[in-house]
Amino acid sequence: MLPWVMTFNATSLDGRITGFDADVNLYYQLASEMNADAVLMGSKTVLNGFNAKSGQLSEESQEDFQPRGMNNEEKRPLLVVPDSRGKIRIWSEVRRMPYIKDIIVLCSRSTPKEYFDFLDERFIPYMIVGYEQVDLETALDELNLQFGVKRVRVDSGGVLNGVLFQTGLVDEVHTLIHPSLVGTGRDSIYYTGLESPADNIRLKLVNVDKLEGGLVYLTYHVIKDL
Ligand SMILES: NC(=O)c1ccc[n+]([C@@H]2O[C@H](COP(=O)([O-])OP(=O)(O)OC[C@H]3O[C@@H](n4cnc5c(N)ncnc54)[C@H](OP(=O)(O)O)[C@@H]3O)[C@@H](O)[C@H]2O)c1
User: Fold this and answer.
1) 10-residue stretch averages of pLDDT, the chain, 226 residues long
2) Measured from the CA of 10, which atom of ligand 1 is nearest?
3) Residue 125: its pLDDT value, please?
């Protein structure tokens, strides 16, 4: 069974996801209220968040090379990251984030063998799903089957969101609108390169919250059946 998938982005009034001062504390407070069992985060978003470059290694200790158990009953969400090219090497630092119970790296059959060795040495769990890129539908299905994941929050930019929307995997869209105009055409929450109105994702508004500081928090359901 596929989990319920929710995107959540902080945006400017003109729909940009970068280039303005997002209220990060409020974003993560609202995110924690979404009761997700897993957070699906893009590899670039992870690297940006840790100010790291592709392939960069973080400081490691003996502890990072020890096995650890995973308790499925634990309330904290799993962090799930598609990284088919093996770009992220700062897992020991990522793993220390207090709000996650563990990490699952999503790889594909084209992921370099050397990356699997890297993950194995550190006992970092991974799944091999798909040939070139990660097959996200299979990954979501497996997360439900193996770890009981029922609700997924996507913490990502327009590329991963775009793939998820295009493959019909998104159920709910959350947007926290900030009172600023960025004024550039880049970094939309949803990027596919498609321009026909027929390709638009149809949405039903389910909630509007007017928050302090001029922010507006919107929740939509994706209309899947025409
Ligand atoms: N304002 C907000 O709410 C917000 C939230 C999150 C992020 N951001 C910003 O968004 C930007 C990054 O966004 P982004 O979308 O460019 O990068 P991203 O979030 O890292 O998304 C790219 C991810 O999608 C995967 N992917 C790409 N094509 C795929 C396909 N065909 N099938 C399966 N998986 C695929 C990539 O996997 P591979 O590595 O395997 O290719 C990668 O993990 C950053 O600037 C970040 O700061 C803003």
Assistant:
1) 97 88 95 97 96 94 87 87 98 93 97 98 97 98 96 96 95 94 73 66 90 94 82
2) 3
3) 96
Supply the pLDDT for residue 192: 65
Q: Which residue puts its alpha carbon closest to atom 1 of ligand 1?
A: 17
The pLDDT of residue 186: 65
Superfamily of domain 1-37+156-226: Dihydrofolate Reductase, subunit A (3.40.430.10)
Q: Does residue 48 have its Cβ closer than 6 Å to ligand 1?
A: yes
Residues of the chain with CATH 3.40.430.10: 1-37+156-226
Distance 212 CA to ligand 1 centre (A): 29
What CATH number was assigned to the domain covering residues 38-149?
3.40.50
Q: Is 26 in the pocket of ligand 1 (CB under 6 A)?
A: no
Domain with CATH 3.40.50 in the chain: 38-149
Q: pTM for the complete prediction?
A: 0.93
DSSP string, 80-144: EEE-TT---B-HHHHHT-TT-SEEEEEE-TTS-HHHHHHHHHTT--EEE--SSS--HHHHHHHHH
Does the beta carbon of 133 lie inside 6 Å of ligand 1? yes
Name the residue at shortest CA distance from atom 13 of ligand 1: 157
**Tokens describing residue 47:** 């690297």
